[in-house]
Design brief:
By secondary structure, the protein is of the alpha/beta class. The chain has 13 helices and 13 strands. The longest helix is centred in the C-terminal third of the chain and has 16 residues. Bound molecules: adenosine-5'-diphosphate (ADP) and magnesium ion. It is found in: Cell membrane.
Length: about 290
């Protein structure tokens, strides 16, 4: 039988916008000693602003329009920002077959041409070599780079910048005060990932990961000796449902998260604030002490 005070703890948490799906997850939360965060949309706002447009052989406006058209079917935060930066109406009749390649970008037919928009990994996969200026930009910039190719030819890139959520640094600091190790996993570039980790005070960061690599990383952390406490993974739900279910406690952001992620998660932070995690741990630890 479930001790009554678990209900008290779960009720208290829900008043703070923290949904805990059972007493067993409270116990796990109380024993967490490693928190693994996804970056985009979890620690960062997931709202990118276009910082620079660098076309090759076309006008800036044309490259932005092409990118926005290519991204017209995607719900990824990067896609939303490109469409917003373009601003105008998009004629979706120009867009044919579209494919989202998770952790990499999109491949879409636009005006009968094959357009790819995404990271360096996607370009490599498509056999497109990024120009030298693009390579230099990638190394220098802490922003996220969206490369664009048309019919296999490099067409330039757009640099977009995301910012940490206002409470992200504080959220990490509170966990560290509790002696909890913090890790960040991201599919983003090394420059963007390491820059964000440094700014937030994250202990350990792994970049350029595919969604499946994130599962491997979590398994590696779970398997580390000596055996530690429990591991929590916090994600925004965009292609991280498999990691959410693999962690001891899978935590999803509620407002941004997809239904699939909310389903796969053990805990949901309704208002998308990473600082709610420390509150969830505090409530769980208190409740566990009462139960015992
Ligand atoms: P994170 O791991 O930070 O949460 P994702 O796994 O969602 O990020 O995406 C990883 C990387 O894949 C992004 O940084 C971006 O380079 C690329 N990417 C994913 N989806 C798109 C898209 N729709 N358009 C362009 N690039 C994308
Ligand atoms: Mg993500």
């Amino acid at each position: 039988s479930v001790p009554l005070s678990f209900f008290g703890g779960i009720g208290g948490a829900s008043k703070q916008g923290i949904l805990i799906k059972g007493g067993n997850y409270m116990e796990a939360l109380a024993a967490v000693d490693t928190v693994v965060f996804d970056k985009t949309g979890t620690l960062t706002r997931g709202v990118f602003q276009v910082a620079e447009i660098r076309p090759v052989g076309m006008a800036e406006k044309e490259l932005l329009e092409l990118a926005a058209l290519a991204e017209s079917w995607s719900d990824h935060p990067i896609s939303r920002s490109l469409k917003e930066a373009y601003g105008g109406e998009l004629d979706r009749s120009r867009v044919g077959e579209a494919e989202e390649l998770s952790g990499r970008g999109v491949r879409v037919q636009v005006d009968g041409r094959s357009v790819c928009a995404g990271n360096r990994k996607l370009m490599e996969e498509m056999g497109v070599s990024c120009s030298e200026s693009a390579a230099a930009g990638t190394e220098r910039s802490a922003g996220t780079i969206v490369h664009i190719a048309v019919d296999g030819a490099y067409a330039g890139h757009i640099i977009i910048a995301d910012r940490p959520k206002p409470d992200a640094g504080e959220a990490v600091a509170r966990l560290k005060e509790r002696g909890i190790r913090t890790v960040m996993l991201t599919g983003d570039s090394r420059a963007a990932g390491e820059g964000a980790a440094r700014e937030l005070g994250i202990d350990q960061v792994c970049t350029e990961l595919m969604p499946a690599d994130k599962v491997d990383k979590v398994e590696e952390l779970l398997g580390q000796e000596p055996k530690r406490g429990r591991l929590a993974f916090v994600g925004d739900g965009i292609n991280d449902a498999p990691v959410l279910s693999r962690a001891d406690v899978g935590i999803a952001m509620g407002a941004l998260g997809s239904d699939a992620a909310i389903e796969a998660a053990d805990v949901v932070l309704m208002d998308d604030k990473p600082s709610k995690l420390d509150i969830a741990i505090r409530i769980s630890r208190k409740t566990i002490v009462i139960v015992k």
